[in-house]
What we know:
0% of the residues lie in helices and 57% in strands. The chain has 93 residues and is mostly beta strands. The protein has one domain: Beta Complex (Metal Binding Protein, Guanine Nucleotide Exchange Factor, Chain A).
Amino acid sequence: MKAIWNNEVIAESDDTVVIEGNHYFPHESIKKEFFKSSETHTVCPWKGTASYYTIKVAGKENPDAAWFYPEVSELAKGIENRVAFWRGVQVEN
């Protein structure tokens, strides 16, 4: 699977976990040069507290377009510290 934004592959892995229609990529599969930590956090009642990244490619920013759960509930152990995408990031084979 590949995550693409602004015509750039920003993550790539054969080991994604799909939860609620989102592909969660291993943290080591993201191209860290395109990711900047965000101050945004949200809470999912069954997964835990999510942290976000802003994606920056070729001078364009996509705020909070990637998220991950640094710590998860027992129900969500399969996605702990994995990264998922939205806000126009395309995930495809």
